[in-house]
Design a protein that fits this description.
Blueprint: H1 2-23, E1 27-33, H2 40-56, E2 61-66, H3 78-84, E3 89-93, H4 116-130, E4 138-145, E5 149-153, E6 167-170, H5 173-181, E7 185-188, H6 194-199, E8 205-209, H7 213-216, H8 218-221, E9 224-228, E10 238-244, H9 245-249, H10 253-261, H11 265-288, E11 292-296, H12 298-321, H13 326-340
Parallel strand pairs: 1-2, 1-3, 6-7, 6-8, 9-11
Antiparallel strand pairs: 3-10, 4-10, 5-8, 5-9
Length: about 350
């Protein structure tokens, strides 16, 4: 009888132990994004971020990284993939889905960006103030920007007149409107399509920051790069790093805290800082290649700012038409940029 009791106790203990194991079992999250793994954001932000989360979870969270759209679909579909739960996490360009994140476009307007880290901090605070309800079905980890966008072209652009008639890739609707205001012929396309489009002569160049020139090999495809004077770059794009809300809600509280501890303004700054570091390397690479790096003086830069002013006015009018106070959004974006500028 004693043996039977002891045996039954062992079975019960084993069952309790198995429940404990089940409660502590690992969680695997799929992270899907559009860039090659060696590009700046994956290499310097997404992968280190995932490793940090895995470590802080004690190995209970595992993040599988799928770069270059390896899980299927096209870059503009990423926001919907995470909303629908097709994947657990995504990193994407907000402007690839026009109309979905209209308030974010305030940071895409001409001559808004300072550098990646400062602008990302400003953009994250702007998100907290104005965009909390713009991401249904998502747990936002970070929103951020890149550093100053500039022109990368086959023919030299030394004045506003030089850009007229050029076919140039733009990443979002606001930025293609800006290119149109300069007299260029804007061509919208996701950034992975740029190298082939340039090499086949579909476009004459692109507007992108220095850091993305590295994986795209733009220094080999074009010979000219045009920057602007002053403390503001030509433009920036806005980015979203988010998790499916249901995937987040299914985590136990201690693992939610791990995600929370690695979300927010410091994560946004990390991404922006990574972009800034990539800009330094990309610019250096173009110089080593012997390419022309043209810096427009203050007077010429002002001509471009004046030419782009109608784009801002049009955006304000569009936002007003949607029941948003467009000018208030622009003013707050400018104030936040001033707050975080060194």
């Amino acid at each position: 009888m004693l043996k039977r009791i002891l045996s039954a106790g062992c079975v019960a203990a084993a069952l309790v132990g198995s429940v404990g194991v089940a409660q502590a079992q690992d969680v695997t999250l799929k992270l899907h994004q559009l860039l090659p793994a060696k590009a700046t954001i994956p290499a310097k932000f997404l992968i280190p971020w995932a490793e940090k989360v895995e470590q802080e979870s004690g190995g209970r969270i595992k993040i599988e990284h799928y770069p270059s759209m390896q899980l299927g679909g096209k870059p503009p579909e990423l926001a919907q993939q995470v909303t629908d739960g097709v994947v657990d996490m995504i990193w994407t360009v907000m402007g690839y889905t026009p109309g979905r994140f209209p308030r974010a476009e305030a940071f895409e307007l001409p001559f808004m960006v300072t550098n990646g880290e400062e602008t990302s901090r400003a953009f994250y605070e702007y998100y907290e103030k104005h965009m909390q309800n713009d991401f249904p079905g998502m747990k936002v980890i970070a929103v951020h920007t890149h550093g100053p966008g500039l022109l990368h072209t086959k023919a030299a652009v030394k004045s506003l007149e030089d850009i007229k008639g050029m076919k140039l890739r733009g990443p979002t609707r606001v930025i293609t409107q800006m290119l149109d205001s300069f007299g260029a012929v804007p061509v919208g396309m996701p950034v992975p399509a740029v190298p082939e489009a340039v090499s086949k002569g579909v476009i004459d160049g692109a507007v992108i920051p220095w850091e993305i020139t590295l994986p795209l090999k733009m220094a080999e495809l074009v010979g000219n790069h045009t920057e602007f004077s002053g403390d503001r770059g030509l433009y920036s794009a806005t980015f979203l790093f988010a998790m499916n809300q249901a995937s987040y809600d299914a985590l136990p509280d201690d693992l939610k805290r791990v995600i929370d501890d690695n979300s927010g303004i410091e994560a946004a700054a990390w991404a922006g800082r990574a972009m800034d570091g990539g800009d330094v390397v990309g610019r250096k690479k173009a110089g080593e290649k012997g390419n022309a790096i043209i810096v427009l003086d203050e007077a010429e830069t002002k001509r471009w700012k004046d030419a782009a002013a109608p784009v801002v006015a049009k955006w304000v009018e569009e936002m007003d038409g949607k029941g948003m106070n467009g000018q208030a959004l622009v003013d707050d974006a400018q104030a936040l940029l001033m707050k975080y500028s060194k």
